[in-house]
Amino acid sequence: MTVATEASAAEPATEPKGPTLMQRMVVRPEIGAALGALLVFVFFSIITDRFLSPLGVATWLDDSSTLGIMAIAVALLMIGGEFDLSAGVMTASTALVTALLAVHAGWNVWFALLASLVLALLVGAFNGWLVMRTGLPSFIVTLGTFLALQGLNLGVTRMVTGTVQVAGIRSADGYNSAGWVFASTLNIGDARIQASVIWWIVLTVIASIVLVRTRFGNWIFAVGGALQNARAVGVPATRTKIVLFMTTAFAGWVVGSCSILRFASVQANQGVGLELHYIIAAVVGGCLLTGGFGSAVGAAIGALIFGMARQGIVFARWDSDWFMLFLGVLLLAAVLVNNRFQKRAERVRR
Questions:
Q1: What is the tens place of the pLDDT at every residue in 169-194?
Q2: CA dist 222 → 80, 133, 189, 242, 279 (Å)
């Protein structure tokens, strides 16, 4: 017995093996989008020489950036289990408020930007509060907000200017400094990188840190995955979702500010229809339509795929109508891939 006991004690304890590299990759929601982006990049790099030229790179990064800024915020909201169909029209609403106050009311551009930011955050907070207060689907609530904002954009702009366009902000006080923040360019070799690209990168980093390194990020996954369970363990679900709706509104303000200060004019119907593109970019980036699963980096990559494909088609001199076919195929493929990755991720975590 003593010999047997000593032999047993001498045997090294077997430690459970950790997940393999492949298993760790499967857990990441953005892995499918990263592979898709690599495929699109290689394909258009071969098809057309313009794609990798300095002008070409700057163009598809520019195209991706404003979509990416919104897609990141929409992805956080979708992980939290909600949708915001007013995200697209919010970009026009904030730009119009900024332009009307700066051009027609004589405000300094910075004060006009602050006023439009306050409006955006109030609308976002209202959306979140109404969804949580009434229990109505966010699809319905934000559809109502979308229609209301679209009507206000058209009605107020036509009443003040007599048209559906506001222009002339370049002559307003504070334009130069505000334009440097939201509409300047960074020259890297022959490439002119827009300020919106910098905003896109910075917001992606911030959103990723918040999502995976903070308590609030845990709350987002909790309210999106199982709302009642999250409430049962003390997660402030109402506050979390209101903040998420305010985040999409803030992103709309950033995009609207970049647009009005770069192009110096804004149309009242600008941004209408783009909300679906934001959702598609988030889904391509790994977000599930059912909530509780997704990635800010993945949404940024999903927007990058959009920009590369849209500009790649132009560079290749194809009919731009093919882009809609690409979007349809991409969305269906993303949904199928995301469901598969989510199921594998659940098995790995167990």
A1: 999 999 999 999 999 998 888 889 99
A2: 8, 19, 45, 15, 20
Query: Rounded to whole angstroms, what are the CA distances from 270 to 63, 158, 211, 227?
Result: 16, 14, 30, 35
Token digits for 206? 């911030």
To the nearest 10 degrees (0 to 180), the angle between helices 322-349 and 274-284 is 40
- pLDDT tens per residue, range 287-345: 888 888 889 999 999 999 989 989 998 998 888 777 778 778 877 777 777 666 666 65
Cα separation of 120 and 132, whole Å?
19
Strands 165-167 and 191-194: unpaired
Cα separation, 58 vs 194, whole angstroms:
8
- Burial of residue 218 (number of CB atoms within 10 Å: 0-12, 13-18, 19+): middle
Region of residue 322 (phi > 0: left; psi between -120 and 50: alpha; otherwise: beta): alpha
CA angle 265, 270, 275 (to 5 degrees): 145
Residue 13 pLDDT > 50: no
Please give the structure tokens belonging to residue 91.
């970009």
